[in-house]
Design a protein that fits this description.
Elements lengths: L5 E4 L4 H7 L3 E12 L5 H9 L6 E4 L5 H10 L17 H4 L5 E7 L5 E10 L2 E9 L8 H15 L4 E7 L3 H10 L2 E10 L3
Parallel strand pairs: 6-7
Antiparallel strand pairs: 1-8, 2-7, 2-8, 3-4, 4-5, 5-6
The structure holds coenzyme A (COA).
Length: 195
């Protein structure tokens, strides 16, 4: 029987056995949580204001979907890590905002999307699907700002727990989430079988 990679929590008892059997860690990832009542709202608002020179920092509408798809297509190869943090390119259907699949963006003057974050909302829990910033706009606070506005909106609506995650090979993602107040509470490993 052939085995593909296996994703397990780093503290799962099976990890040691697989390593002893010749499996290798090929990727590491993490998950983090922000409890709404601990969110520092003024700090988040400041982070949003810091990006406002780039455009409107707001929830997307159906009319933004074409521009979101353009950003997604241009950045499809930019996600570090392995199977655990893989980003499936958006389809028109998955890009369409709904009551449970929400998205916020930084939208420039001609409608171009500089940054976007998608959050799947289930009751009082919101889990980030992905966040991406246009290559030419990275490192200027836009990724942090677009996530900040999503947290502010969801907390305002009564969401109590926000979750996110990412690859250990993505220091910008970890730094952005730490700045927002997320705390890492799970670490994961992806193991590949012996050759
Ligand atoms: C991850 C990503 C969304 C971050 O957005 P960004 O706008 O570039 O990030 P910001 O400018 O808001 O910076 C966030 C933090 O990361 C740090 N940072 C930015 N680029 C960095 C880099 N290349 N290496 C290390 N740290 C970096 C910043 O200093 C900042 O940290 P600080 O708050 O402690 O100062 C963006 O790099 C991206 O689109 N990457 C490709 C897609 C992806 O990997 N998405 C995340 C997984 S869903």
């Amino acid at each position: 029987m052939s085995h593909g990679p296996v994703v397990l929590r780093a503290d799962d008892a099976r990890v040691a056995g697989l390593l002893a059997g010749g499996w290798r860690v090929v990727a590491e990832s993490w998950a983090a949580e922000l409890i709404a009542e601990r969110a520092e709202l003024e700090r988040l608002e400041r982070l949003v204001r810091g990006a406002s020179a780039w455009g409107e920092v707001r929830e997307i509408a159906a009319s933004d979907v074409v521009a979101v798809l353009a950003l997604d297509a241009a950045t499809a190869g930019d996600y570090p890590g392995g199977v655990a943090t893989r980003h499936e390119p958006l389809t028109r259907e998955r890009a369409r905002p709904t009551a449970t699949r929400r998205a916020w963006a930084i939208v420039g003057g001609t409608g171009e999307v500089h940054a976007v974050t998608y959050v799947d909302v289930n009751g009082t829990c919101g889990e980030t699907d992905f966040t991406v910033v246009a290559r030419a706009r990275r490192g200027r606070g836009l990724g942090t700002a677009v996530k900040a506005v999503s947290v502010l909106a969801l907390v305002d609506e009564g969401v109590e727990v926000l979750r996110t995650g990412g690859s250990a090979e993505n220091p910008a993602s970890l730094a952005a989430n730490t700045r927002l107040g997320y705390r890492v509470d799970e670490r994961w490993v992806t193991l590949a079988p012996p050759a």
